[in-house]
Amino acid sequence: GDERKEWEEDIIPLVGCTVDGLIAEAQANASTWKFQSWVPLLKDRPALLISSNDGLQPSAEALADALRKAGDADVQTRHFDTDHPYSDKRLALTSTVVAWLSDHAK
């Protein structure tokens, strides 16, 4: 379907990978690759969660909410209205990350 076509288009820069291999790996690790499983390890660290129009914004927002509920007082989210490779937002993406890193430099 459309999802498989999108994977086929996105795999081009992933040398040595196949769509079937990536799908199989994702399915085999689905239970351990959940963002929520990282909350106990991340809750005491600053977090910047960035999303695009690739369908992962709900997961990023859920992780941000879970971190906040676990006591993380320094969680920021930023959504860019763009595609997964941030094709037309790369400067804005870079500026966002650099500003966040500058704010959190120790």
Short description:
With about 110 residues, this protein is mainly alpha-helical. It contains 5 helices and 2 strands, in the order H-H-H-E-H-E-H. It is globular, with a radius of gyration of 16 Å.
Ends apart, CA distance between termini: 47 Å
Radius of gyration: 16 Å
What is the count of DSSP helices, taking H or I runs of 4+ residues?
5
- For the biggest β-sheet, the strand order reads 1-2
Q: Which stretches are poorly predicted, pLDDT < 50 over at least 5 residues?
A: none
User: How many beta-strand runs?
Assistant: 2
Shape: globular
Characterise this structure:
Helix content is 47%, strand content 9%. By secondary structure, it is mainly alpha-helical. The protein has a two-stranded parallel sheet. Helix 4 links the parallel strand 1 and strand 2 (75-79).
